[in-house]
Amino acid sequence: MGESRPLSRSEALQLGPGWRHACHALLYAPCPGRLFGVVPLGHAVLMQMRFDGRLGFPGGFVDPRTGSLEDGLNRELQEELGPGAAPLCLAEGDYLGSCRVEAPQRLVTHFYTRRLSLEQFRALEEGATRAQEHGLEVMGLVRVPLYTLRDGVGGLPTFLSNAFAGGAREQLLESLGILGLVPEAQLSEAVAASPKSPDAPQPS
Ligand SMILES: O=c1[nH]cnc2c1ncn2[C@@H]1O[C@H](COP(=O)(O)OP(=O)(O)O)[C@@H](O)[C@H]1O
């Protein structure tokens, strides 16, 4: 994946036909539970295990020549999350930002976030096995652990050492900070402690 550069929605939509567009969304809900009765979960954040073994957000390629970005995103969400995604109907107000990447292909990614109730979030999880792409492009949904365990590595740092599709890891980190789901200092510590980070203590 080449270097990714932010650009505005209107700049993105003015790019020529040689550019492909993809929209993805972070869906989240406040989650009052505690792991082992002790560690606060904070929020449930949805990602998915993809067909290629990488983690990503629900969404996919869209064609802005045939409809709005959000039309394309909502269609992809239904294919990947099932009919339970239909009532969500993401809109321009859910848009967070866009990035362009030149290599290996000319791609613009558009990112959205939507806060759900925990009941809505659970209904999505329960319905996802009936989605058209379940077992095909989507192997299953996962919740992102937002906490860091007492060993300093378990939880978010270890989650971040997975393989991610495209710019999904950067989108996750940026939106967790912007939405205030994880304090910035804790995010930076999790990145540094992630077992694949060059700054992390390496196993001897
Ligand atoms: O969560 C993500 N965030 C950012 N880019 C992603 C994410 N998932 C996939 N991509 C990239 O977006 C493009 C579309 O991939 P995706 O597999 O979502 O489309 P599709 O479902 O229409 O086949 C690919 O270049 C992929 O690398």
From TrEMBL:
GO terms for molecular function: 5'-(N(7)-methylguanosine 5'-triphospho)-[mRNA] hydrolase activity; IDP phosphatase activity; phosphodiesterase decapping endonuclease activity; snoRNA binding. Keywords: Nucleotide metabolism, Nucleus, RNA-binding. Its cofactor is Co(2+). It is found in: Nucleus, Nucleolus; Nucleus, Nucleoplasm. Pfam families: Nudt16-like. The keyword Nucleus applies. Residues 18-170 form the Nudix hydrolase domain. Gene3D superfamilies: Nucleoside Triphosphate Pyrophosphohydrolase (3.90.79.10). It comes from the Eukaryota. InterPro entries: NUDIX_hydrolase-like_dom_sf, NUDIX_hydrolase_dom, NudT16. It is an enzyme of class 3 (hydrolase). GO terms for cellular component: nucleolus; nucleoplasm. Belongs to the Nudix hydrolase family. NUDT16 subfamily. This is U8 snoRNA-decapping enzyme. It comes from Pelusios castaneus. The lineage of its organism: Eukaryota, Metazoa, Chordata, Craniata, Vertebrata.
